[in-house]
Structure formats: structure tokens, C-alpha cells
Design brief:
- Helix 1 crosses helix 10 and helix 4 packs across helix 5.
- This protein is of the alpha+beta class and about 375 residues long.
- Strands 9, 10, 11, 12, 13, 14, 15, 16 and 17 form a 9-stranded antiparallel β-sheet that branches. Strands 3-2-1-4 form a 4-stranded mixed β-sheet, sandwiched between helices. Strands 5-8-6-7 form a 4-stranded antiparallel β-sheet.
- The protein folds into 3 domains: about 1-80, Rossmann fold; about 110-175, Dna Ligase, domain 1, CATH 3.30.1490; about 180-375, D-amino Acid Aminotransferase, Chain A, domain 1 (2-Layer Sandwich).
- It has helices at about 10-20, 50-55, 70-75, 85-90, 95-100, 120-125, 155-160, 220-235, 270-275, 280-285, 345-360, 370-375, and strands at about 1-5, 25-30, 35, 60, 110-115, 130-135, 145, 170-175, 180-190, 195, 200-205, 210-215, 240-250, 255-260, 300-305, 320-325, 335-345.
- Pathway: Purine metabolism; IMP biosynthesis via de novo pathway; 5-amino-1-(5-phospho-D-ribosyl)imidazole-4-carboxylate from 5-amino-1-(5-phospho-D-ribosyl)imidazole (N5-CAIR route): step 1/2.
- One of its GO terms (cellular component) is cytosol.
- It catalyses: 5-amino-1-(5-phospho-beta-D-ribosyl)imidazole + hydrogencarbonate + ATP = 5-carboxyamino-1-(5-phospho-D-ribosyl)imidazole + ADP + phosphate + 2 H(+).
- Homodimer.
Amino acid sequence: MRVLVYGSGQLAQMMYLAAAPLGVIVSAVDVVTETVVNPISKKATGVPLHRAIEESNAITVEFEHVPEHLLLDADKSGKLYPNVASILAGADRVREKALLVKNNIPNCEYLLIDHVDQLDDVVERLGEKVIFKASRDGYDGYGQWRISSASDLVNVRKDFALLDLKKVPVIAEKMMQFDREISLVGARSQDGQIACFSLAENLHHEGQLHVSVAPITQLTEALQKKAKDIFETLATAMDYVGVLAVELFQCGEELYVNEIAPRVHNSGHWTQQGCSTSQFEQHIRAVLNLPLGSTELIGTSAMVNIIGCTAFSRDLIGIPDVHLHWYGKEVRKKRKMGHINVVAKSHASLGKKLKQLIEFLPVEYFPKLESEATRLENEKN
């Protein structure tokens, strides 16, 4: 069996590695050159794209910002999973908000801005603390503006005057006073089978994910069920096939959807060592309509992103149950170079292990790690 992935970054690479033991061959598409490449070496395979589509049993994506003409070409084959509408909902915040509203999914209060004069009503409607998000091509903190008082709108107005807001509108969201950011990664197969992983707790720095911990601390069955109900509603409404990530704000016992990602997701990388089936294998299973794998936990896990740095000691893999995943990229500021998965028996022991890990890392690139390690170390479970 063959799977063709649009996008040739680390997610395609990890799908390739997860698919190999199943006897599934994964190829990737460099969406800039429209060339079929090997997901590991990135070298062209010599297979024309039209033939790769014909020879594939399933076609999928590693990110939602695939050029639309490529998605439509892939869709004609009848083998694209998830479907085009689902991918576009993840790529466009206007479509995403419409999806949430249509399905009565709680989300942040918002306004659609497609003209700079609409900024006049923002503070009155949403309050003084607002985050503005470009409806397309914004991720990892890019394409975002924040205000904490009405006076901050002066600079936002200047920036927006330079944008084509009709072409790419902006979503203005009321900043929520949430307790924490969590996410649920799950999968739905072609025949409607659904399997969700445990909730993960996510720590961000400058708009970028730095650490995920799963399961979340103080996890209750009610909270997991509430998140799963949201996942099932969205996945069923979209007739979704594959792995889907739902990012959530927790406010007390209530959950509000922040974003959806129609693909394998950074906050699910911990599943590689922390679960019976990784999110990458699960995605391959789902798009090929194979039985979904068990999402049973192997332990308590943390995923630590390596961002913009290569200067750390590989000796960190000498710590028991610490695993390095390297992407082979050229270093660049804010670029995800790899990640580290850590597995332990409890949150407290996970905290101790993260303290050990810190000794091998340049702390300036891991600003959330020490405080998170201390928090987990004090957990009683």
C-alpha cells in the first residue's frame, strides 16, 4: 500500500517512519516545486506527480496551507483524506469559526475585520484585551497582534492600513482568562470509527508550543468526555478521515475551542513513546481504512520542542526513557529543529526526569522547562 503526503517536512518524515512497519510506503510532495520526494532524504523520486496520485491508495496532507489547486487535483482522485473542506477549515479562521458556530461548539467571542474602520467597534464589543489573528497563513505566533488597552489600537490601525483585509480578513478575539491550554488529538477512520488520545497540557512561549504533557494534571473523566464530545461533533460534521487536533482553552470545567488542525499535530508527538499507537501510525491506519490502534497510555509523557538551536548534548539520550527526534533541518530562529519525548511512571517522576534533562540543554532556548519540571515534581499522583 502507498500513501502520498502533500508537504515534505518533519510530519511527513514521521509518517514515513511510522508507516514502514505496516508495509506502507509513504512518499511526499514538495508543494513549492510540485515534485514527489523521499520524506527522509528530500530527494526527488523521479515519479511524476500525476503518476504518484494514480499509484497511491490514499493521499493526505502534513499541513493545512497546501496550495488550493493541488488539493483540488488530489481530490479528483477520490483518495484525499481528510477532505478538502476539512483542510480549508483548518487553513482559514473565517471558515473555522463558521464551522464552530454552525455546530454550537463553544469558542472565543470574536469579530470579523475586513475593513480598517471596523477597529472602531472592537474595544466596545470585545473589551480592551484583544488578540487579532490573520485568517490565513498565521501560525506559531506569526500573523498576530495583541492589545491590552484602547490606545494600542493606534499601532494596529497602522499595520492594518497596509493589508488587503478583503483578501485576507482578520479575526479579532476577546482574550479569555483561561486556566490552561490543552489539546485533544484523535482519529476518525473512513468507516466512522473514532479513537482519541488522552488530553495534553500545552505551554507556549511567544506564540509557539514549547512543552506538552500528557495526560494533563488533574484529569477527570468528565473533562476527557467533554473534549471527546467536541471532537466527535466536529469530526462527524466534517465527515473527517485521519488525525485531527483540537486546541482548547480550559476555564474551570468548561472548554472552548481555540483552533483545529486537520493533521497530525505538534501536541501529539508525545504519543510516539507514550502510547501503544502513535498519532502518525494512527493517521496512516485511518486514511487507509485499517483498524485504528489502541490509544492506551504507556506512562506519563512530556514532549519538549527544540527550537532554533543545535547546541545541546546528545548524551541526554542516556537518561532512561528519554528519546530524541531530530528533523535534519538547517538552524533558523524560531524553527522547530526536533523534539524530545520523555516517559515516566507519574507526573512527579516526570518532573524529576525533566530536571535531569535540563542539565544537557542550553536553558535560554527552553524557557518553560524548569518551571514546568518543578510544577510536575510537586504533583501528587
